[in-house]
Amino acid sequence: MLKDTPGSPLVFLDWTPADSGKVVGHRIYRAEAAGAWQPIGASFEPGYVDLTATVLHTYRYAVSAYVDTGQESALCQPVNIGVPGIRTFLPLVTR
Fold first, then answer.
1. What is the pTM of this model?
2. What residues does each domain of the chain span?
3. Can you give the pLDDT at residue 90?
4. CB neighbour class for 31 (10 Å; exposed up to 12, middle 13-18, buried from 19)
5. In the CATH hierarchy, which top-level class contains the domain 11-82?
6. Partners of 39 in the beta sheet?
């Protein structure tokens, strides 16, 4: 199961690792709207930060697991994540 951290312009993904001791890593995929899945990275841990997401966009993310021979599992259930705009807070300075 994928989940993200709300309130950030970056997309932080984490998931429950596979039970199999044969899994050596995960591949992360992203798609826009009904577009095709594109690989955007890999991780040896059950987490990933998408630094290339565009603010005010909604993406679909999915992850697969792979073993040392390169064989890859099917994608997990995708999740839709909207990237919020960046909020800027300026300090109030009074004299």
1. 0.79
2. 11-82
3. 61
4. middle
5. mainly beta
6. 29
Alpha carbon distance 17, 10 (integer Å): 22
* Euclidean distance between CA atoms 89 and 64, whole angstroms: 38
How large is the C-alpha radius of gyration of the chain? 16
Cα distance from N-terminal residue to C-terminal residue, the chain: 52
Q: pLDDT digits over 11-59, tens only? A: 889 998 878 789 999 999 999 988 999 999 999 999 999 988 888 889 9
DSSP per residue over the chain, as a string?
--B--TT-SSEEEE-PPPS-TTEEEEEEEEEETT---EEEEEESSSEEEESSPPTT-EEEEEEEEEETT--BPPP---EEEEPPPPP--PPP---
